[in-house]
Amino acid sequence: MEKRVSIITPCFNGEKFVERYLESIINQTYTNIELIFVNDGSTDKTGEIVQSYISKFEQSNMKFVYVNQKNAGLAAAIQAGLKLFTGEYLIWPDSDDSLPLDSIEKRVNFLEKNKQYGLVRSDGYLFNEENLNKPIRVMSKKNPNRFKEDLFEDYIIEKGTWMGCFMIRTSAFLDVNPKREIYISRAGQNWQMLLPIMYKYKCGFIDEPLYNCVVRKDSLSHSDRNINLQTSLNKFSNYEDILRHVIDSMDIDKVYYNKLITEKYARRKMVLAIKYKDKGLLIHQYAVLRNVTRFNINDRITFIKGLIFLSLR
User: Fold this and answer.
1) 105: exposed, middle or buried (C-beta count within 10 Å: 0-12, 13-18, 19+)?
2) Is the entire prediction scored with pTM above 0.85?
3) For domain 5-215, which architecture applies?
């Protein structure tokens, strides 16, 4: 008998894309599916659309669990599903994305044949929300390191990484997270789900686009981009807080990995300082880097070029 795959999908005001998403699930070639759909306080027609699919899922012999909660953010919605899922495998796609029809079957087959992996990722297509028929590009950009199996540090510093294309073994997840709990925040649920598993287990890779990701103008990761310096700094601070919380919850070398996080965001804030013409921020973040890392010629070049640029403004 096919092993059950649980799908946890959080959604807030997703009426524009949710029907497309549900169709991609109900038409999967792999049928032993449990969909846990968490409506995170939507104020549009999301609930109405989703509930109209309950009978369709039942007719397809797929288990459908509908959760309606007050708006609490993606991480809280994911956690609501974590308390309920029963499958041997788990994925958590966004409701504005979709899965190719053989996506789940190929992931399960990979993990069934490769017991040494605790999780698997695939390539995926990126689509502009205005044209869902023609992909912009593949998510991996055919990175030569896409077959790398030890990804823990890469996903902390975001080196050659992408999200949205993972399936994890439930046994691996419960091994590192027996309480089925993640840090409640407005974002960053992928780090919270993946990093503890990546630290202990190797990750496989399927070199096919098995995920369709929609780039939305109003998405969490794009809506506040380039608005102003403070908004961007706040976003980085939120991400940094999530990463540190995950690291601090693990039995690992916290000093080393917190240093990586400090370096990562100091470099990003230096770039922001140059962009928004904030000389004081540039100097401060460069000092932060000098305090936590060995001399890095690229950091020095960025700093000097930034000073010259700001002096000419």
Assistant:
1) middle
2) yes
3) Alpha-Beta Complex (3.90)
